[in-house]
Amino acid sequence: MISKVFIVGAGQMGLDIGQVMAKAGKKVTFRDMTDEILAKSMAKLNKGLDKQVAKGKMDEDTKAAILANISTTTELAPAADADLVLEAIVENVEIKKTLFKELDGICKPECIFATNTSSISITQIAAATNRADKFIGMHFFNPATVMKLVEVIRGLHTSDETFKTVYDLSAEIGKDPIEVKEGPGFVVNRILIPMINEAIMVLEEGLASAEDIDKAMKLGCNHPMGPLALADLIGLDTCLHIMDVFYAETCDSKYRAARLLRQMVRGGKLGRKTGVGFFDYTK
Ligand code: NAI
């Protein structure tokens, strides 16, 4: 049974995941680098809850119950009695490994370690610990308060017991999990990012305009959003990074990043976050 959850990284993903866990009755502790970051994150969480209350989507009692389940810290020591540690820090393998190595010495032996990584090998991070059987990928989608999917990813050594606990937990907190064996990009990004890359190649070849490529996939495949607008939303740097990981892991030329994608990243056109990508967001 998972009742105490220690979330490392109260950023975009960690904060939403923590909120989902707290709403499901779990005791959640957020750990981030400074009190300032934590104060900002908690203000954001509060604001989000207030909005839901104002819209009539949540009552005051639920909001109070969520907040009562949450605490914050800048230390790792309070992870000692956690049943689950969920990591959602920067996407850097060395930083993640250092963190888990330290946690391995702090947490109780039965504590499960989960990472929300979108591209790094679960087995590789698990190797920094002495509990690879209790190490697993728990990949949420953005925004985690809304998106139903969780990819529950087995590393090489993940035990069936660990898998079942995390899979059941995902369902318990109101998500709809799938089982995935480890492989670059897992399921969603493995299919999605090469599709986006292909759309960029179609644009680069001058076969259709950006507007028409997106229109084609919306009207022809019933996608809610076109691939180029989606690339702008995800961030072109992130899309490129993921393509490069696929290529590095497989040496398969089908994962060659579009030249235009690389050029746009080099030129600082990263999508919504810089105001310009395939579409202009400055107006
Ligand atoms: P973010 O940059 O919004 O948040 C990361 C947080 O971790 C920051 O608040 C930072 O201060 C904190 N942090 C960094 N090192 C730390 C440490 N050693 N201890 C405690 N806190 C630390 O990043 P975001 O977008 O939430 O991504 C986090 C993870 O989730 C990454 O592995 C990313 O690949 C993955 N992910 C991201 C998605 C997205 O759409 N942004 C979707 C699914 C997974």
Contiguous runs where pLDDT drops below 50 for at least 5 residues: none
The overall pLDDT average reads 97
Classified in CATH, the superfamily of the largest domain is NAD(P)-binding Rossmann-like Domain
Distance between the termini: 50 Å
Q: Which of globular, elongated, flat, extended, rod-shaped describes the shape? A: globular
User: How many distinct helices?
Assistant: 11
- Structural class by secondary-structure content: alpha/beta
Largest sheet: 8 strands, mixed
Query: Biggest sheet, strands in spatial order?
Result: 3-2-1-4-5-6-7-8
The run of helices and strands is EHEHHEEHEHEEHEHHHHH
Strand content: 5-15%
How many domains? The number is 2
List the helices and strands and how they pair.
Layout lengths: L3 E5 L3 H12 L3 E5 L3 H20 L5 H9 L1 E4 L10 E4 L5 H14 L5 E4 L6 H5 L8 E6 L8 E6 L5 H13 L3 E6 L6 H17 L5 H12 L5 H8 L1 H15 L8 H8 L17
This protein binds 1,4-dihydronicotinamide adenine dinucleotide.
Structure characterization notes:
- This protein is α/β, with parallel strands linked by helices and 283 residues long.
- The protein folds into two domains: 4-181, NAD(P)-binding Rossmann-like Domain (Rossmann fold, 3-Layer(aba) Sandwich), CATH 3.40.50; 189-273, N-(1-d-carboxylethyl)-l-norvaline Dehydrogenase, domain 2.
- It has helices spanning 12-23, 35-54, 60-68, 93-106, 122-126, 160-172, 188-204, 210-221, 227-234, 236-250, 259-266, and strands at residues 4-8, 27-31, 70-73, 84-87, 112-115, 135-140, 149-154, 176-181.
- It has an eight-stranded mixed beta sheet.
- A hairpin with an 8-residue loop joins strand 6 (135-140) and strand 7.
- The mean pLDDT is 97.
- Bound molecules: 1,4-dihydronicotinamide adenine dinucleotide.
- Residues 8-14, 31-33, 37, 88-91, 99, 116-118, 140, 142 line the site of 1,4-dihydronicotinamide adenine dinucleotide.
